[in-house]
């Protein structure tokens, strides 16, 4: 093919190159290869960029034609085309509705509409039906680049003010691209599928409607956002919907209510009211961490929560972090007996902040008294209660809160000690995760960012130390180049829960900056003052969030030693009441959390109720058990009961109630 146009060379994934006239489209290229590829093609990658089949290629390039078998482009296009198809369906049903934007998101897409009446669940059904009709029509998708004036006029004529505003915010040098799905048109960067029939008819679903402000601005119009999910196949959709159901069944907010663990209320947004059973989990976990840290060579400290802004100014938090801090003003003229409001003296107002993190306070402890190199490494741990003003929209049960307690520690050490301390911490964290039921975790290694302080040599040294530490403990990591803090690299630790969700919990961060800002020094072997490094580290993150993860991971059925209610001893007849109390006392003496249920109810009723409360073991006692000094054992999740003597069950449960680090 030679029609006078300049020729370009396209290189295929197998390494072969062929010559085409400049301006050739991937659709033409696919047709040259085979008719079936021309039909099956969904898009191309041209020099790595996702490329519409209709877009011309003007210069030599590497090209790959995508089909539905290519997961990433297939998912992107299915979801993106569905966003357009949904908007078209909405405007076909309700022509007055204004369209705005509709991006692809994880697992699907959304589109924001301006419509006076709210969309109902029945409306979603009608939209889905209309979308299926559009898909069945196999309408051709076409595209053109327009100039600005024409595009603006088009949208003004069609009464689409949001699109006019959008055009205004697109950089002037960017071409405006229009797409048509049949006759329905939208402003869009593309790429898109060849025709609506390429979208699978049964691998997607409309999920929900939510309010969303235009451009996320609460002073602008409230729009209605319709969410959809889409996959390559019906099976994938089914799997995803099952996953959602599973996640809902495990939701810690629901389980927290059912198990009576905690509540939250309006007067203290983002802060937890722990109930007795919830606090039992919390303290069991905290006791465990305290023992682990003590064994790991940490010294526990405790520091103030209300701290003068001067310290936050010195640490740099006041500048960088103030919008996340709870600020507390105190009129110090009220000091002592003088509480007359009239004498309130502005000059005596002290501005404090609730600590959003413990680090600056830990440096204050380090700074007391002269430190020598022989004191290093100094590992200071605190179950530090912090407060952060998180946006209300981000709050989520006990997992994203404003008041929380970290399993925080700071290690003050020399540069040469960083590697050893890092290796020790990874081993420490691995032990904690394993004992808490998460044998697998991933390390992500965030290295030097563009904007940073410190010399390249010192970055080389510290990054090298972390790398060698990870190697020394026989682990792998994923590199996150450029994601470190401006003063040092960090490791983040991600664990995977029972349904495959990934949670970032632990962190390890090297910091030469805060000791510098807050004037921390030690006397080195050379007799001179040196700056220590400060290593920030946490294994769980916060107790609140980690308990949320534990509840969801175990679907409320926590490992026996962490279960707030471990055993209910239930009477079958009232003749067994005394024996029930004896069993409870015996278990209690063995360190097992046991309670009696001698209500005048049927045993099946009691079993059902305590099973709902996720009590792992129910011991039923009737006349025979009294006679034989035995119990009938019912374990959570098992249908059959087994018999055991009181001695046997006491020994077994005593062991089960022992935290893993004490076994
Ligand atoms: Zn689009
Ligand atoms: Zn810290």
CATH structural class of the largest domain: Alpha Beta
Strand content: 25-35%
Overall shape: it is globular
Secondary-structure-derived class:
alpha+beta
Considering the protein shown, what is the CATH homologous superfamily of the largest domain?
A: Bira Bifunctional Protein, Domain 2
The major pleated sheet works out as: 8 strands, mixed
Low-confidence parts, pLDDT < 50 over ≥5 residues?
none
Report the CATH architecture of the largest domain. Answer: 2-Layer Sandwich
In total, how many domains does the architecture comprise?
4
Task: Report helical residue fraction.
Answer: 25-40%
Radius of gyration: 32 Å
What is the third-level CATH name, the topology of the largest domain? Answer: BirA Bifunctional Protein, domain 2
Biggest sheet strand line-up: 16-20-21-28-25-24-22-23
Number of helices: 20
Overall pLDDT metric: 94
Total E-strand runs: 33
Distance between the termini: 78 Å
The distinct bound ligands, ions and cofactors come out as: zinc ion
């Amino acid at each position: 093919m030679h029609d006078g146009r300049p020729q370009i060379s396209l290189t295929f994934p197998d390494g072969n190159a062929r010559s085409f006239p400049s301006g050739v489209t991937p659709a033409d290229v696919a047709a040259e290869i085979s008719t079936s590829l021309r039909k099956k093609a969904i898009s191309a990658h041209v020099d790595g960029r996702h490329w519409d089949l209709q877009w011309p290629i003007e210069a030599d390039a590497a090209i790959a034609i995508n089909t539905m078998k290519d997961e990433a482009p297939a998912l992107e296009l299915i979801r993106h085309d569905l966003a357009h198809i949904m908007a078209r369906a909405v405007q076909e049903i309700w022509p007055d509705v204004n369209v705005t934007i509709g991006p692809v998101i994880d697992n699907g897409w959304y589109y924001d509409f301006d419509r006076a009446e709210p969309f109902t669940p029945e409306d979603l059904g009608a939209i889905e039906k209309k979308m299926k009709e559009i898909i069945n029509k196999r309408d051709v998708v076409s595209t053109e680049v327009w100039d600005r004036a024409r595009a603006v006029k088009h949208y003004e004529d069609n009464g689409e003010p949001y699109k006019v505003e959008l055009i205004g915010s697109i950089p002037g040098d960017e071409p405006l691209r229009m797409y048509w799905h049949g006759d329905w048109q939208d402003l869009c960067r593309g790429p898109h599928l060849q025709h609506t029939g390429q979208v699978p008819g049964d691998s997607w679903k409309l999920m929900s409607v939510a309010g969303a402000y235009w451009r996320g601005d609460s002073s602008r119009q409230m729009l209605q956002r319709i969410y959809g999910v889409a996959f390559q196949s019906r099976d994938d959709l089914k799997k995803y919907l099952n996953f959602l159901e599973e996640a809902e069944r495990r939701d810690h907010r629901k389980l927290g209510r059912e198990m009576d663990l905690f509540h939250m209320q309006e007067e203290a947004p983002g802060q937890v009211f722990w109930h007795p059973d919830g606090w039992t989990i919390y303290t069991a976990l905290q006791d465990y961490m305290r023992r682990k840290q003590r064994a790991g060579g940490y010294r526990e400290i405790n520091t103030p929560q209300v701290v003068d802004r001067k310290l936050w100014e010195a640490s740099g938090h006041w500048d960088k972090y103030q919008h996340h801090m709870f600020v507390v003003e105190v009129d110090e003229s009220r000091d002592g007996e003088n509480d007359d409001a009239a004498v309130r003296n502005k000059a005596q107002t002290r501005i404090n902040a609730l600590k959003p993190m413990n680090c600056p306070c830990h440096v204050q402890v380090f700074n007391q008294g002269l430190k020598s190199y022989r004191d290093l490494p100094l590992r200071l741990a605190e179950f530090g209660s912090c407060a952060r003003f998180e946006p209300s929209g981000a709050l989520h049960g006990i997992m994203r809160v404003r008041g929380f307690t970290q399993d925080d520690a700071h290690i003050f050490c020399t540069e040469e000690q960083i590697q050893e301390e890092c290796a020790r911490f990874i081993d420490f964290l691995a032990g904690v995760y394993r004992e808490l039921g998460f044998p697998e975790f991933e390390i992500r290694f965030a290295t030097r960012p563009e904007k940073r302080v410190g010399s390249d040599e010192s970055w080389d040294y510290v990054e090298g130390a972390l790398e060698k530490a990870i190697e020394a403990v026989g682990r792998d990591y994923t590199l996150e180049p450029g994601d470190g803090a401006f003063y040092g690299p960090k490791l983040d630790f991600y664990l995977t829960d029972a349904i495959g969700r990934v949670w970032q919990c632990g962190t390890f961060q090297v910091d030469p900056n805060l000791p510098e800002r807050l004037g921390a020094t030690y006397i080195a072997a050379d007799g001179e003052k040196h700056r220590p490094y400060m290593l920030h580290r946490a294994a769980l993150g916060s107790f609140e969030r980690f308990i949320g993860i534990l509840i969801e991971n175990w679907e409320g059925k926590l490992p026996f030693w962490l279960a707030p209610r471990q055993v209910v001893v239930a009477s079958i007849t009232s003749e067994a009441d005394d024996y029930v109390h004896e069993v409870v006392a015996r278990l209690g003496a063995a360190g097992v959390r046991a309670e009696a249920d001698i209500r005048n109810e049927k045993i099946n009723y009691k079993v059902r109720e305590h099973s709902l409360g996720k009590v792992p073991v129910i011991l039923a006692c009737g006349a025979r058990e009294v006679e034989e000094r035995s119990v009938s054992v019912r374990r959570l999740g098992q249908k059959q009961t087994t018999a055991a003597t009181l001695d046997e069950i006491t020994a077994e449960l005593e062991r089960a109630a022992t935290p893993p680090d004490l076994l």
